Amino acid sequence: MRELSQLSGVSGDEGRVRRRIWEAVRDKVDGGKVDAMGNLITWKGLDKPGPRLMIAAHMDEIGLMITRVDNDGLLRFKKVGGIDDRVLPSKAVRVGPDEIPGVIGIKPAHLTNAGERSKPVPAKDLFIDIGASSNEEAEKLVRPGMYAAFATEYQEFGRRMAKGKAFDDRVGCSLLVDLLSGDPPFPLFGVFTVQEEIGLRGARIAAYDVAPDLALVLEGTTCADIPGAEEHGQSTRLGHGPAITVMDRTSIPARPVIETLARVGTEAGIPWQWKRTTFGGTDAGSIHLTREGVPSATVSVPCRYIHSPAAFMSLDDYDNTLRLLEAFLPHVPEVARRLAPRRA
Question: How far apart are CA 192 and CA 25, in angstroms?
Answer without folding.
Answer: 11
